[in-house]
Design goal:
This protein has about 325 residues and is an alpha/beta fold. The protein has a single domain, classed as Glycerol-3-phosphate (1)-acyltransferase. Helices cover about 40% and strands about 15% of the residues. It has 11 helices and 9 strands. α6 links the parallel β3 and β4.
Length: about 325
C-alpha cells in the first residue's frame, strides 16, 4: 500500500483583482471569503497536509519484536536445552506479541483435535506470517524446508521452536525426516505440515503432496516398547487473510500478506509493519483417522478438498 499523498489546495484565482479604494482595503467585504492571514505561523498551514505515520508505526513495531526476541531467545534456548515444559509455551507467547506488534487480528473456527492421540495438521501455505498466526494459538511444531535453517535470525528462531527441517530436493533424506516426524507425533506433539510444498498467492489452494503425510503411518506403531498402536489424526486447516483495516482485503491487496514467488523477505516484512491491521482466519476441518490400512494419497486428497472448501468460504465471507 502506498502512503497517502498530501491533500491538494484549490488552485488560486490568477485573474487580476479590480482596483479598490483605500476604504475597501481597510474594510474587507464581510460577505466575501476573507483572505488567508499571511502573518499566521507556518504550523497552521502544515495542518492541511496529511502526515505519513506508517514508517514510525513500523519502527515502533520492529522495536517491540526485537525486544521480544532479545528477552525470549535466551529463555527458550535454556528451556530447550534443559527440556523444560516452558519450551512449548514461550514460542506461543512470542507469536502473540508478534501478532500484536504487526497488527494482525486472528479468528479461529473449530479446534485442533486433542483426545490423547497424535495429530498432523495439514494446512495451506501463504506466507511466513502463517507461522506467527498459527503459533499464537497453541504449542505447535512446524515442518519447514531445509533452507530456512540457514536464514539469519529466522533460522535460529525456527530451530528453537523445534522445527523439523526437510530437504525436498533429496529423496534420500525424506525417509529420515519422516522418521523424525513420526517420533514427534508418537510423543504427542502437534505437527504442522504445509503439503503444498510452497506458498501461494493467498487466493487459491495448491495441490497437496502426500510424501510426508506417510509419517503418520510410521507413528501408528507408537512409542518404542509399547504394544499398543498410537492413535493418529490428520486434521485439515485453512489459513486465509481476509481483511485490511476492517474492510475486505480483496485479491489486489492480498500480496500484502502473501509471500510467494521471488518476493524478498525483508521488504515484505517492512511493508506489513507499515500497514498493519490485517485480519487472518483459521478454520479447522474434520479430523481424518489414519490407521494402518490408510492410503496416504487418499488422505492427502481428502485433506486438500476440505482445506480448499474452507478457504473459499473464508475468502468469500461465508466462513
Amino acid at each position: 500500500m502506498k502512503a497517502k499523498s498530501p491533500s491538494h489546495m484549490p488552485a488560486p484565482d490568477l485573474a487580476p483583482a479590480p482596483m479598490s479604494s483605500s476604504a475597501d482595503i481597510a474594510e474587507p467585504d464581510k460577505g466575501q471569503g476573507q483572505d488567508v492571514d499571511k502573518t499566521a505561523p507556518p504550523q497552521l498551514a502544515a495542518t492541511n497536509r496529511s502526515i505519513d505515520l506508517a514508517p514510525y508505526r513500523a519502527a515502533l513495531a520492529a522495536c517491540v519484536i526485537i525486544l521480544a526476541v532479545l528477552v525470549g531467545l535466551p529463555l527458550q534456548w535454556l528451556s530447550v536445552t534443559l527440556k523444560l515444559p516452558s519450551a512449548r509455551w514461550i514460542p506461543v507467547l512470542f507469536h502473540r506479541i508478534g501478532c500484536k506488534a504487526l497488527g494482525v487480528r486472528v479468528s479461529v473456527k473449530g479446534a485442533c483435535v486433542r483426545d490423547g492421540g497424535a495429530v498432523l495438521i495439514t494446512a495451506n501455505h501463504i506466507s511466513w506470517l502463517d507461522i506467527v498466526v498459527l503459533g499464537r494459538t497453541e504449542p505447535l511444531s512446524f515442518i519447514a524446508k531445509s533452507e530456512v535453517a540457514s536464514w539469519p535470525l529466522f533460522g535460529l528462531l525456527a530451530k528453537l521452536q523445534r522445527t523439523i527441517f526437510v530437504n525436498r530436493t533429496r529423496r534420500s533424506e525424506t525417509g529420515q525426516a519422516t522418521r523424525e516426524i513420526a517420533e514427534r507425533l508418537a510423543s504427542g506433539d502437534a505437527i504442522v505440515l504445509f503439503p503444498e510444498g510452497t506458498s501461494s498467492d493467498g487466493n487459491r489452494v495448491l495441490p497437496f503432496r502426500s510424501a510426508l503425510i506417510g509419517a503418520a503411518k510410521t507413528a501408528i506403531a507408537g512409542k518404542e516398547g509399547s504394544n499398543q498402536e498410537q492413535k493418529v489424526w490428520v486434521q485439515p486447516l485453512s489459513i486465509a487473510y481476509t481483511g485490511l483495516h476492517g474492510m475486505p482485503m480483496g485479491r489486489q491487496h492480498r500480496p500484502l500478506a502473501a509471500w510467494y514467488g521471488d518476493m524478498d523477505l525483508l521488504p515484505h516484512l517492512w511493508a506489513l509493519l507499515k500497514e498493519g491491521a490485517v485480519d487472518a482466519e483459521l478454520a479447522y476441518g474434520e479430523p481424518i483417522a489414519f490407521d494402518a490400512k490408510a492410503d496416504r494419497k487418499q488422505i492427502a486428497k481428502q485433506a486438500e478438498d476440505q482445506v480448499r472448501l474452507l478457504n473459499q468460504q473464508a475468502l468469500m465471507g461465508r466462513g
